[in-house]
Amino acid sequence: MSPHSKILGRLPGLRHFIEVAQLGSFRAAADKLHVAPSAVSKQIKNLEFALDVELFRRDRGRGGLELTEAGEILVRRCASVVNELTIAQDEIHQLQGLQRGHLRLGVNEVLASDLLPGILRDMSYNHPGLQFTIVVENSREIFTRMQDGDIDIALGYNFPPSPEIETLATLKRRTYVVTALDHPMARLRSVRLKDIEGEKMIFPDHSIPIRHLLEDAFTQSNVTVREVLNTNSFTLLRQMVESGMGIGIVVGRFLQIRREKIAFIELQDLPFDSPPAACCRLAGRTPTASSVAFAAAIKTIFANYGG
């Protein structure tokens, strides 16, 4: 069944009329619609009765049915009707996408634990029929899954530059030293690299790009620290900082649901720009209604929140 036929399924008179007008035959229209020719004829007669006009000339000597002047007008107007109904159907499908859609996200761990819970809570409240699938991975794995069509939107840091990626929103972040609340630096607003000379340091591991940037920064500044732990989990890193095991360096302060008892002290003299948080999707693909709604929520947060 064509999209137009599907849309007009509740309007049988117009639906049958359009098919007969296009095919020039009651029988051909009946075959296409899988109904008896008499059913098509009845629908056309009902429509003609409702409009009080003849829509077709039925002279037996003609090679096929011809539209009357009234029929020609109706065909032209039906084109507008079908167009508007098509738009209406698309809009309804978009609404249904939010009512019972499926949002698939790929998210870096630190954003999954800090930024994401509040957004998902609000979306779930506003659109209770939505289903969520959240993949927490590093940026390279998220990019691969996005290419494979496994996720709709990516949220994280350091996505590889590619014409395949459409960036929907970015948020410039500052870099902070994080300490336990009873650490001497916790009372400061900002520090420089030389101020953390000799400190016990909890590092991200070498699979995370910022680790290499930090090592280069310490080398250039001739600053030495004592590594006591490294991990690929920023959640664990912050927990161990909170416990007093050491200090850490992170990008950004986040909208945490449960705020750890840690202090954020801005690190001012790094020789590199902190990577922005980015919300991306694969370019050239039609976005789902749920992914559009999520991207709008991210843009709002990014526009109103900094740091």
From TrEMBL:
Spell out the GO cellular component terms annotated for this protein, sorted alphabetically and separated by semicolons.
cytosol
Any one GO MF annotation of this record = DNA binding
**Domain named HTH lysR-type: residues:** 14-68
Which of UniProt's keywords are assigned here?
Answer: DNA-binding, Transcription, Transcription regulation
Q: Which Pfam families match?
A: HTH_1, LysR_substrate
Give the superkingdom in one word.
Bacteria
Q: Does the keyword NAD apply?
A: no
Provide the family line.
Belongs to the LysR transcriptional regulatory family.
Query: What name does the UniProt record give this protein?
Result: DNA-binding transcriptional LysR family regulator
> Which organism is this protein's natural source?
Sagittula marina
